[in-house]
Each structure stands twice: as structure tokens, then as C-alpha cells.
Amino acid sequence: SQQGEEDPQALSIQEGENATMNCSYKTSINNLQWYRQNSGRGLVHLILIRSNEREKHSGRLRVTLDTSKKSSSLLITASRAADTASYFCATSGGSQGNLIFGKGTKLSVKP
Amino acid sequence: NAGVTQTPKFQVLKTGQSMTLQCAQDMNHEYMSWYRQDPGMGLRLIHYSVGAGITDQGEVPNGYNVSRSTTEDFPLRLLSAAPSQTSVYFCASSYSIQGGNSPLHFGNGTRLTVT
């Protein structure tokens, strides 16, 4: 069963613009992670944010978490063509702690 | 470090055939898992393991078997392939035995087609 759901499903922007992707989930979580997947490749971990954190940064990436709204957002600033990929949020909660992935946002950055 | 290595990269099977997808990691991770990725469905957990000798079912385990005889290897067996098992399969590992509490390291996937 999908826990996280990304929005929008697809996003097309110009190089230099910012890209914002959102993730909503249904049940309480221990942490939330964001991953990137380039075409034909495996997923690559970007950021992990714990349930007691509100914001995290890594380079051009900024992730926020609002546990009261059960939502997270991923902001990529000054996008580059190389950022073209699918982005997934994944949540972890419960005793087993396995990651449950959303369906992803497909980002296209045009040069 | 090679990270997570999956073989083969591509495979075509006929309905009813069996095969094993191989996964190996060289990071001494206790947690390993198998996901399948289908268009429009995201990634779904098939089986996972929190250490050698310990395996458990995920969300979609039917038609698949796993074993974990060593820390490094976590093969996925398709017992009798069906067209519904056409998918891209990813193996992932993590240093935390609760797979969601630390980053997952993914292999590059096996693309399986069942005709």
C-alpha cells in the first residue's frame, strides 16, 4: 500500500528555475526520505528528515516536514538539466520500519 | 566499494520458468530488501532481511522466495514466472536493521520480462 503520494506527478521547468515537489502521507512516521532516480538506474538517497525535524538542507536541496499536515516538500534551487530525474519520497514508521515509497514526481529541466 | 551489485541486468523468461536474481553488497549491511517497480505503481517491497538467517515478507511476496545465508548475499527466486511478474527489480541495503532509519543503497536493477 502506498503511504506517500507525490505531487505533481510531472513537472517541467527551465534551467535556473526552482523546482518544488510535495509529498503527503497518511499515518505517523519515524522519518521521511527523498530519493532521485535517473532513467534506467537505481534510486539514490538525497535527504533523510526525522519526525522531530522541520527543515533540512543539502547543497541546492531543501526539505521541509510538517507532521501536523502529514506533508513534506523538496525544493531544488537553481535547477540544472542534470537534475532531470524522477523524485520519490519514502516514509518509515511502525515496528518493522521498512521504507514505503510513493509513486514519484518526474522532473524535466530544459536547458 | 562496489556497493550493491545486481545480476543479471536484463532477463527474458517464458511463463512457468524459474530463475534467481542475484544481489550482493560489500558494505557489511545487516538489512537487505527487494522491491519491484512498475509503471505508475512506484516501488513495492517484496521481501526483506535484517541479518543472515532472517527473512520476512513485504507487501507483495507471492510468487517469490528469498534466503539469506550470508551477510553479503540476498538472492530472489521466482518459482514459476508469470507475466504479472514483468517488472524492474531492485535490491537495496542499509546499515540499520530497521531499513527506514538510515539511507537505502540501491543496485541498478534487473529488468525482467515474462512472456
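The mean pLDDT of chain A is 93.
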